[in-house]
From TrEMBL:
This is Methyltransferase. Residues 404-510 form the DUF7782 domain. GO terms for molecular function: methyltransferase activity. It holds the Pfam family DUF7059. It comes from Ornithinimicrobium faecis.
Length: 511
């Protein structure tokens, strides 16, 4: 059904990679320039795996970056002349030698130098501080066939989700588990002195080595399954976009290395959550993406909460979405390159539905699991919540601030919390909604402009507390004032407001 990849992973010496780097730079092969060259419509279509609009735009273009998109993103045949012009130092021979392309067949009756056919996906990628290039296998869009089982994934939706949500403190040692093309490791190298990147797939490690070399980023690449390659070591930050896709173990269902760890159901994520404590330095943070299976009547918080029980780790888990079993099956059968309406699509779809039905699974949740090893032997905090709407990008700064706030709350008493003179964060606004003509609002709520874009409904006591929190008076002093004004006993006011106060501090609305 699926065969291994046809072409080997790219490989280059330091000098060859330096020449390629200079060529790509001179050709303007950057995220900004490609966005300009393709324009918003073709860029968005390409993002949706529809290459036709980009092809039409590039047909008109003489831009060397356009030739590189056709060769290295769309996997098309490009004339040797265009390749030489776009990569003058590397040249046609160099591109072939690096494993980026092979000579294509000439059309019948055609003579001369054969064009080059792209065999490796290489594209610019960056964040607000970096411009990189990432090498991976050509996508399903370029291949036009179902993916090989040893496919090495490029930067996809899950990769950018994890990259966005990762808290990025400056650390000594970081681990990227399941590095694939190396994208998370590139990000980690921006704020870690040393980055270890592991993968079970030798092919993935070859792509990661090429990506690292091309970007002059030092990575300690190691082969092996899960935590085996780092046994006995500890890290300040662990990131992982693991092979979490729940896949039926059924004859004829391919095991894609890039997304499927080979374990039953959601075991791979459950085991990682349980085992990560072994590689976290005190105070160390781990973040991973995951899917979790939900049986009839089962709350996702119970399922994931069960994984956390014996870890002793702080945990903040955010469920971003959940899909019913049919949506889930469609997503992953399509992802493997099968088109609806084909017998292969239907067979695989049925295998997923049979597997879920046999095991009583009704839905599958997806989310971001952030863990922290406490510095002391205090009780770990656990926060499992659903955040489904858009959030500020990148979300990592809000996650780091939220971790810090939750840690402070876990280490301090209610009296400590009330003894702080809190300030309302600058991105917070208040909305009051009521019936026309009525003096009192029916609803008072706070809206967070940045961070995780929270909306928090307040009662009048909490609204009074927040309204007076300008960094001068402590929460206790403000509650004392409200008690005088309303004749309500201060103990009652404290009891009514404490849970809200904790949440506002945890989520950064009060700081
Ligand atoms: C979803 S991809 C993530 C790639 C990349 N880190 C990213 O964020 O795009 C998962 C990676 O895990 C690797 N993998 C699969 N099984 C593994 C295992 N048992 N141990 C370590 N890595 C594994 C795959 O080869 C693949 O590169």
């Amino acid at each position: 059904m699926s065969t291994p990849s046809r072409y080997p992973a790219p490989l280059g010496t330091v000098d060859e990679l330096a020449a390629l780097r200079a060529d790509l730079t001179d050709a303007g092969f950057t995220t900004d320039h490609l966005a300009e060259l393709l324009g918003p419509v073709a860029s968005a279509a390409l993002h949706r795996d529809q290459p036709l609009t980009a092809r039409r735009v590039l047909l008109e273009s003489q831009d060397p970056a356009g030739a590189l998109v056709r060769l290295l993103v769309l996997g098309e045949a490009v004339s040797a002349q265009e390749v030489s012009a776009a990569l003058p130092r590397t040249g046609v021979e160099g591109a072939i030698q690096l494993g980026l392309a092979v000579p294509a067949d000439l059309e019948p009756g055609e003579e001369g130098v054969p064009p080059l056919q792209g065999t490796c996906d290489l594209r610019p990628y960056g964040d607000d501080r970096h411009d990189w290039w990432v090498a991976s296998d050509l996508s399903e869009v370029a291949l036009g066939t179902p993916l090989p089982t040893d496919h090495v994934l490029g930067v996809g939706g899950a990769s950018t989700t994890l990259a966005s949500w990762t808290p990025r403190p400056q650390v000594a040692r970081a681990l990227d588990l399941g590095t694939g093309c190396g994208v998370q490791a590139l990000h980690a190298a921006g704020h870690a002195e040393r980055v270890v990147a592991t993968d079970l797939s030798a092919r993935a490690l070859e792509f990661a080595a090429f990506t690292a070399g091309l970007n002059e980023v030092a990575l300690d690449l190691r082969a092996g399954s899960l935590l085996d390659p780092v046994a006995g070591e500890t890290f300040d930050l662990v990131v992982s976009n693991p092979p979490f896709v729940i896949t039926p173990r059924h004859e004829g269902v391919p095991l894609f290395e890039y997304r499927d760890g080979g374990a039953a159901g959601d075991t791979i994520v459950a085991n990682l959550v349980r085992d990560l404590v072994g590689v976290l330095a005190p105070g160390g943070i781990a973040q991973l993406l995951g899917n979790w299976e939900l049986r009839e009547g089962e709350a996702w918080t119970d399922r994931v909460g069960g994984w956390l029980e014996s870890t002793g780790l702080d945990a903040w888990v955010i469920q971003r979405e959940s899909q019913d079993v049919a949506e889930y099956a469609e997503t992953w059968v399509r992802d493997g390159g099968h088109r609806p309406g084909t017998p292969e699509f239907d067979d695989l779809y049925a295998a997923w539905l049979d597997d879920f039905s046999a095991r009583g699974i009704e839905r599958v949740g997806f989310g971001i699991i952030t863990l922290q090893r406490p510095l002391s032997d205090r009780a770990p905090f656990r926060d499992l919540e659903e955040v489904v709407g858009p959030v500020a990008q990148p979300a990592g700064p809000a996650v780091l601030a939220g971790l810090r706030a939750r840690t402070w709350l876990a280490e301090h008493s209610d009296a400590d919390l009330l003894a702080v003179a809190w300030s309302v964060a600058p991105d917070v606004t208040e909305e009051r909604v009521g019936r026309p003509g009525e003096p009192d609002p029916m609803v008072i709520q706070l809206r967070q402009g940045g961070g995780l874009s929270r909306t928090v409904r307040l009662d009048t006591v909490a609204a009074g507390l927040v309204g007076a929190s300008d960094g001068d008076l402590t929460a206790e002093q403000i509650l004392g004032g409200i008690s005088v004004l309303t004749d309500a006993p201060v103990e009652e006011l404290r009891a009514s407001v404490l849970a809200t106060l904790r949440d506002l501090v945890a989520d950064g609305l009060l700081q």
